[in-house]
Amino acid sequence: MAGVQETKIHVLSSGAEIQQAVCDRVVQIAASCIKERGMFSVGLSGGSLTKYLSNGLRDRTDIDWPRWYVFFCDERFVPFADKESTYSVYKRDLFNHVFLLPEKTITINPCLATVEEAASDYTDKIRRVYPKDAVPSFDLLLLGMGDDGHTCSLFPSHPLLKEKEKIVASLSDSPKPPPSRITLTLPVLNNARNVFFVAAGEGKAKAVKDSLEPEGEPTLPAGMVKPTGGELHWYLDTGAAKGLSKK
Ligand SMILES: O=C(O)[C@H](O)[C@@H](O)[C@H](O)[C@H](O)COP(=O)(O)O
């Protein structure tokens, strides 16, 4: 496919090495984007990524935080006070410790009546930053992957995998609790300038293999993420990379 660049796979020997490698590259991309266009837009995911990014970015002195726009690749539709809120984890472990501007931290509105409304509201918030783009092109999206191959809140065999129009969708049947979530859709993921997957542990080895070396077309959500003109990097530990023939 024109424009699809080669996937770059990085196999590290520990979580600490993954954290260092990912955060070093995040900082490099941020600095390059800020130099080029005066801003850096990044989408964050929940789960173990919250620890890698919070621990790996919080104390760095080479980050121009006020130039960052932070979005969420997905978010649980729960109050920010709920421990399940991805925003609340980042706020406690990272945002409270750095000079990120609140007005450039683009969160969902968990006080809306329904998750559908929250998805629509989040769409509007993204479009205020990207008013000219039918599909926004984020500078970097940081994704995790579940053992089942889900990413963001896009789950195997879920109808949302077929969503081609919306840039943000909602679901109330997430197999991974909590059930109500919003998520960026595949058109947005595949329009990013850079996409990183971060996956560690043997439990992910089969999903990594099925995503990166599928027999035929990929059927797992993580395997469907192939940015058309952007760079795709997978950061794995040896356990998660165990099933790969090419490393
Ligand atoms: O909010 C979420 O639940 C995440 O965005 C989700 O997509 C996560 O990235 C994967 O479930 C992997 O989570 P782990 O890295 O913790 O396994």
Automatic annotation (TrEMBL):
CDD domains, per the entry: 6PGL (cd01400)
Pathway: Carbohydrate degradation; pentose phosphate pathway; D-ribulose 5-phosphate from D-glucose 6-phosphate (oxidative stage): step 2/3
Domain Glucosamine/galactosamine-6-phosphate isomerase: 16-234
Listed transmembrane segments: none
InterPro entries: 6-phosphogluconolactonase_DevB (IPR005900), 6PGL (IPR039104), Glc/Gal-6P_isomerase (IPR006148), NagB/RpiA_transferase-like (IPR037171)
Catalytically driven reaction(s): 6-phospho-D-glucono-1,5-lactone + H2O = 6-phospho-D-gluconate + H(+)
Keyword Hydrolase: yes
GO function terms (MF aspect): 6-phosphogluconolactonase activity
Protein EC: 3.1.1.31
UniProt entry keywords in alphabetical sequence: Hydrolase
Annotated function: Hydrolysis of 6-phosphogluconolactone to 6-phosphogluconate.
Similarity comment: Belongs to the glucosamine/galactosamine-6-phosphate isomerase family. 6-phosphogluconolactonase subfamily.
Official protein name in the record: 6-phosphogluconolactonase
Species of origin: Amphimedon queenslandica
